[in-house]
Amino acid sequence: MESIDYRLAFEQAPVGLALSRQRTILNCNQALCEMFGVTRDQLVGQSFLILYPSVSEYERTGARIAHSLNSNGTYADDRIMKRVDGRFKGETFWCHVTGRALRPEAPHEAGIWCFEDLSARRTVRAELTGREREVAAFLMKGLTSKEIGRQLGISHRTVEIYRARLMRKYQAHSTADLVHRLLEG
After folding, report:
1. End-to-end Cα spacing for the chain
2. How far is residue 151's CA from residue 19's CA, in Å, rounded to a whole number?
3. Could you tell me the pLDDT band of residue 185, with boundaries at 50, 70 and 90?
4. Is 2 exposed, middle or buried (0-12, 13-18, 19+ CB in 10 A)?
5. Is residue 1 very low, low, confident or very high in pLDDT (cuts 50, 70, 90)?
6. Is-above-0.85 flag for pTM?
7. Which 3-state string (H, E, C) describes the chain?
8. Do residues 44 and 25 make contact, with C-beta atoms less than 8 angstroms apart?
9. How far apart are CA 141 and CA 33, in angstroms?
10. Torsion angle, CA of 69/73/78/82, rounded to 10 degrees?
11. Which residues, listed in sequence order, are joined to residue 25 by a DSSP beta bridge?
């Protein structure tokens, strides 16, 4: 049986891949570079913060990731990320992110992350705050205001305020209509 060159498989994977240590990019593949409009040299050694629309989103996501990775070793969500450079520099886009901690008891110590650009299926139509983006992502998963509040560490009434803002921005008539509009972009 012929052996597989795992480095070549990592590099040629059809989705963005990154290896991390303490939320810093140790290595990444070409698909990740193309997704964010950068060269490998621009990403390696950088904090994942460079890929987020804001510092607060980076910090809040890190806290959620640590909790989930600590409990089961894996994490996945849809979130809005930001292109770093190139012709779409600064553009925000929906991205599906999946990760695994190499040691679940030390969630950010080392991991592998997969990034899938969802912009072909779902565009970011409205200018949203960081918290609105987080609430929108959980609404698309079908979570209730109470469940979203628990996930984000805020009250369900605060979630309802953000949901109302999203409904105005997307001109939605109900939560179901909002979710539909979010999903179609």
Report:
1. 46
2. 26
3. low
4. exposed
5. low
6. no
7. CCCCCHHHHHHHCCCEEEEEECCEEEEECHHHHHHHCCCHHHHCCCEHHHHCCCHHHHHHHHHHHHHHHHHHCEEEEEEEEECCCHHHCCCEEEEEEEEEECCCCCCCCCEEEEEEECCCCCCCCCCCCHHHHHHHHHHHCCCCHHHHHHHHCCCHHHHHHHHHHHHHHCCCCCHHHHHHHHHHC
8. yes
9. 28
10. 70
11. 20
Please name which of 147, 115, 119, 131 lies closest in space to residue 50, comparing C-alpha atoms. Answer: 115
**pLDDT at residue 152, rounded to an integer:** 84
Long-range pairs of 171-177 with CB within 8 A, sequence gap ≥ 24? 175/139
The model's pLDDT over 44-95, given as tens digits with 9 standing for 90+, comes to 999 999 999 989 889 888 888 887 776 677 888 888 899 998 888 888 888 9
Q: What is the dihedral of CA 69, 72, 76, 79, to 10 degrees?
A: -40
Gap between the Cα atoms of 47 and 156, Å rounded: 32
How far from chain centre, in Å, is Cα 182?
Answer: 16
Query: Which residues make beta-bridge pairs with 17?
Result: 114
Residue 27's beta-bridge partner residues?
Answer: 19
Residue whose token pair is 């553009």: 91
